[in-house]
Amino acid sequence: MPPKPHILIVDDEAGIRESLSSILTDEGYVAESAESAERALERTSHGGLDIILLDVWLPGMDGLEALSRIQTMPHPPAVIMISGHATIDTAVRATKLGAFDFIEKPLSLEKIIVLVRNAVQQRRLEEENQSLRSELGHRYQVIGESIPMKALRQQIAVTGKELVARSLHAASLRNKGPFVEVNCAAIPEELIESELFGHIKGSFTGASDDKVGKFQQADGGTLFLDEIGDMSLRTQSKVLRVLEEQRFEPVGSNQTIRVDVRVLAATNKDLEQEILHGRFRQDLFYRLNVIPFFVPPLRDRTADIPILARHFLNEFSSAYGKKTRELSDGALEILLRYPWPGNVRELRNLVERLVIVCPQIRIELHHLPPELFRGVVESAHQPYGTLHEARSAYEREFILRKLQENRWNMTQTAAAIGLERSHLYRKMKTLGIAAPD
After folding, report:
1. Domain range spanning residue 274?
2. Is residue 429 part of a domain?
3. Quick one: three-class SS letters along the chain?
4. Does one domain contain both 390 and 278?
């Protein structure tokens, strides 16, 4: 049998630690507890943890600082943040720092159990995926059959896979060296230099030990700087120097460390526009922009949406032990017309949510969240041949949105849009809107 997942509960309230430990032990987990972030970091550094339930407000070091440090550890456990005074800003920052989820006090024990179960399942999936990637020699698949994605694969084939993140690393002469990834947008500005270049003990408040930076960790291999467009100008200048000289000094140290690192960078920003506005160094841009690749946004390659949706449906149906879900024609049409500001990650998250909450094998229009319909109404990129077509499309989207908002209650929807109930039914039939069973 697989070992029981280990969970660490970090809260300064003894009652919460004891009640959560008792509940999680009854659920079959091994539960430990710590009353401070400092004790939690010490325990986490020894390894063996799967999940951490971490309070935001703690004496001494707070939970967000602890989360940031946990994420720098090799193979960090999944972290669920807990707060009695949560704000949207706190939740957003925790998510950017890598938290699995965020839950407010007073705690719902049922929700805690569900979150822990999901986090354990995701962690096991990640471990299985990592194992499979190792067996396959880190061969990452680029999914999509649209013209832009075919062009991207052709470009990769012509130039070599050496410049496509993990595929680059696996196919390069550095594949026996480390592959180190840094999300520049997820690390607070005050910690980014320490993260990249390391620091010595006592160099700043909280630097209780020496730390090896990502550049040094990637020595002999590849360093992937994701979301480099969010890096500050000060840090950009230091990164440029390392690229040019292959040497740096850790924070608080005069000792020069030499490294041999290949750097890959990615961003969702237009760096040339960032340069014009003084937010990105031109010399760093030209130093990085040796062989560029452009991955088009999902809204520009709608032919890939059905392929990706099916792929994610299969993936999550299997992961959650459910029969493979499928999309109705109407639901797929909404996905095709939604602008997807969050690109493939947004689509993936949506499909995972649908697999979890949809009780039926077939996902219909009424299972889709209301924001998809609002996005469709607000997007004006769909061409229509005639005024009648445009008006019908708008009416259909408007009525669908109102039906969603009123949970498909026909009487409430009719009142909300100023129609007789019978007239609403006729409109739905004319516009091809099928009511849920």
Report:
1. 138-288
2. yes
3. CCCCCEEEEECCCHHHHHHHHHHHHHCCCEEEEECCHHHHHHHHHCCCCCEEEEECCCCCCCHHHHHHHHHCCCCCCEEEEEECCCCHHHHHHHHHCCCCEEEECCCCHHHHHHHHHHHHHHHHHHHHHHHHHHHCCCCCCCCCCCHHHHHHHHHHHHHCHHHCHHHHHHHCCCCCCCEEEEECCCCCHHHHHHHHHCECCCCCCCCCCCECCHHHHCCCCEEEEECHHHCCHHHHHHHHHHHHHCEECCECCCCCEECCCEEEEECCCCHHHHHHCCCCCHHHHHHHCCCCCCCCCHHHCCCHHHHHHHHHHHHHHHHCCCCCCEECHHHHHHHHHCCCCCHHHHHHHHHHHHHHHCCCCEECHHHCCHHHHHHHHHCCCCCCCCHHHHHHHHHHHHHHHHHHHCCCCHHHHHHHHCCCHHHHHHHHHHHCCCCCC
4. no
Task: Tell whether 313 and 281 lie within a shared domain.
Answer: no
**Domain end residue (candidates: 97, 132, 167):** 132
Q: 123 and 245 share a domain?
A: no
Of 112, 132, 152, the last residue of a domain is 132
State whether 39 and 114 are in the same domain.
Answer: yes
Of 312, 410, 397, residue with least CA distance to 363: 312
Bridge partner residues of 258 (DSSP): 247
Instruction: Output the domain CATH number for residue 13.
Output: 3.40.50.2300
Q: Does residue 367 share a domain with residue 430? A: no
How far apart are alpha carbons 160 and 169 in whole angstroms? 11
User: 185-242 pLDDT, tens per residue?
Assistant: 878 888 888 899 999 888 888 788 888 999 999 998 889 888 888 899 999 999 999 9
Give per-residue pLDDT as tens, 137-193: 444 455 666 666 665 555 554 453 334 556 666 656 777 888 888 888 878 888 888
**Type of residue numbered 153:** R
Task: Mark whether 190 and 222 lie in a shared domain.
Answer: yes
Q: Which of 403, 405, 404, 396 is nearest to 377 (CA)?
A: 396
Tokens of 345: 């990650």
